[in-house]
Amino acid sequence: MDLLSKKITFRHALAQWYAKAQRPLPWRTQPSLYRTVVSELMAQQTQIKTMLPYFERWMRRFPNFTALAEASSEDVLKHWEGLGYYSRARNLHKLAQQYIAAESKPRTQAAWQALPGIGPYTSAAISSIALGEAAAVVDGNVVRILARLNDDARVFKNNGEAVKAFTTTADALLDTANPGQHNQAMMELGATLCLKHKPLCTVCPVATFCAAKRNGTQDARPKIERKASIKIEINRAWVLQGDKLLLHRIAENSSQLAGQYELPTLEAVSAKTSKRRLLASRSRAITHRRIKEHIYQTKPKRTLDHSIEWIAVRDLPRITLSGPHRRWINELMSMHNSVAGTQ
DNA sequence: AAAGCGGGGTA
DNA sequence: TACCCAGCTTT
């Protein structure tokens, strides 16, 4: 392959650029195995800029594997609140407990991938960055860069197919003497210059290796098919009596959102015949689903499911809610208070 | 192989 | 609005 025949000079150009252009991220300026692990879990499907404040707060509360392993699930989940993909927090918690308990600590990509929440990407990242193993990472950034370097016109069914297709090339391109630096340099290039829209090719350190730049096809690479979006509507109940709010608690053994609270659905709380008043409508998107949620003020049914709980308003800061639910409750609570205050 | 997961940023 | 982001797990 054309690119691989020049891989030595490519690696050098990339490394020279990364040495001076890299962002001073906290897990780079003060590296450790633990900080690498936490940063990688937090960065899954999440932009660095978004997770950065969470990382700093996390490190103050859980500075090492031991502190995290000994923390309660509630405490761990609370510090993840708003970041999304909450199974990452539960997996990271379990991982810390397994790591502390392990007689022999994991030291290879294969050993790391056996831990909860660690897949091919994250195991390669941890083992290369923190342990010096020659494992190439292939994330969205690397896919984009390699597709452009080769001006690859193939159409991939989804991101997973694209990752598989570029794994061989990524492995061959890896600087095995400095795998951690090389991997981070590739991702840094994708995050700061080889952008999805309007890549900054004029300042790219490896532009001379890039077939897409030569052909002017940057914006069309890579080609990955998208799922059609689905529209969903959900009705939720706002039941505030005295100083207590009715919330739905998701079971601890649920595979998703375990232990989190949310505004209950209207059907779960309110009899069909009871009066209701629309307080607010909000839209949000979860991957390819577009969800519209309507929140109604209503009265509760006589008998409620055990998963529906009265939560004192003063306890709201202590429980874990998803970002949108936290925001809606704050909005509705201040609406309520302002109305009450004028009476 | 495909679906599900969350939220924020951006054009 | 639609798509993307340092992906993994479950079905």
TrEMBL record:
PANTHER family associated with the record: ADENINE DNA GLYCOSYLASE (PTHR42944)
Lineage top rank: taxon: Bacteria
Protein name: A/G-specific adenine glycosylase
Similarity-based family: Belongs to the Nth/MutY family.
PROSITE patterns (UniProt xref): ENDONUCLEASE_III_1 (PS00764)
Keyword entries, A-Z: DNA damage, DNA repair, Glycosidase, Hydrolase, Iron, Iron-sulfur, Metal-binding
Species assigned in the record: Thalassobacterium sedimentorum
Role description: Adenine glycosylase active on G-A mispairs. MutY also corrects error-prone DNA synthesis past GO lesions which are due to the oxidatively damaged form of guanine: 7,8-dihydro-8-oxoguanine (8-oxo-dGTP).
An annotated Gene Ontology molecular function: hydrolase activity, acting on glycosyl bonds
Domain HhH-GPD intervals: 42-192
Names of the cofactor(s): [4Fe-4S] cluster
Entry EC number(s): 3.2.2.-
